[in-house]
Amino acid sequence: MTRIIPAMLSIFLCLTVLPLPLSAGGKSDYQASVKRYLQTAEEYRAKSRELAVTEENLAPRQKGYVKQLSDTYGQLADIKIALAVAVGNRDWPGEERLETQYYLLKDREKALWDALDVSKN
Fold first, then answer.
1. Residue 88, in any domain of the structure
2. pTM above 0.85, yes or no
3. What is the mean pLDDT of residues 81-86?
4. pLDDT tens-digit readout, 9-51
5. Number of structural domains, the chain?
6. Is residue 4 domain-resident?
7. Does the residue 40 lie in any domain?
8. What was the pLDDT predicted at 31?
């Protein structure tokens, strides 16, 4: 539950504080990117919560993998929020650094799912 409050605060700050440009046609590409990042962050938070609940019903050797997956999804959500802030502020070096971290975490997620599948056998 303590993860949800900072995430909600971060999303609120992103939506209210970020200086996002408006194009003549309405929403800019920056605003659309920020919105997608924040939606993805919420999806990752939901997966993290779902895995935390699922963890209780697993065998002991699987609990460790599920706990790590839950933490990884929380970190992915944090990175997506940070990416939204970086894009909103047009911090391109920061965005590149965060994207690198994001893809490393996605690799970790895949490895954890593979390890969990192996542990089921």
1. yes
2. no
3. 94
4. 555 555 544 444 444 444 578 888 899 999 999 999 999 999 9
5. 1
6. no
7. yes
8. 86
Say how far apart CA 90 and CA 83 lie, in whole Å: 10
Domain limits for position 116: 28-120
- Give the gyration radius of the chain's Cα atoms: 17
Crossing angle between the packed helical segments 29-54 and 4-17, to the nearest 10 degrees: 170
Identity (one letter) of the amino acid at 72?
T
pLDDT digits (tens, 9 = 90+) for 57-68: 888 889 999 999
Q: Which pair of tokens denotes residue 63?
A: 């609990």
What's the CA gap between 23 and 73, in Å, rounded? Answer: 33
Task: Give domain status of residue 41, yes or no.
Answer: yes
Question: Under the phi-then-psi rule, with left for phi > 0, alpha for psi from -120 to 50, and beta for the rest, what region is 19?
Answer: beta
How many residues in total does the chain contain?
121
CA distance to 14, 24, 26, per residue, from 30 (Å): 12, 13, 11
Q: What are phi and psi for residue 91, nearest 5 degrees?
A: -95, 80
Token code pair at residue 11: 């999303």
Structure tokens at 74: 């929380």
Cα torsion angle, 58, 62, 68, 73, sign: negative
Are 39 and 46 within 8 A, CB to CB? no
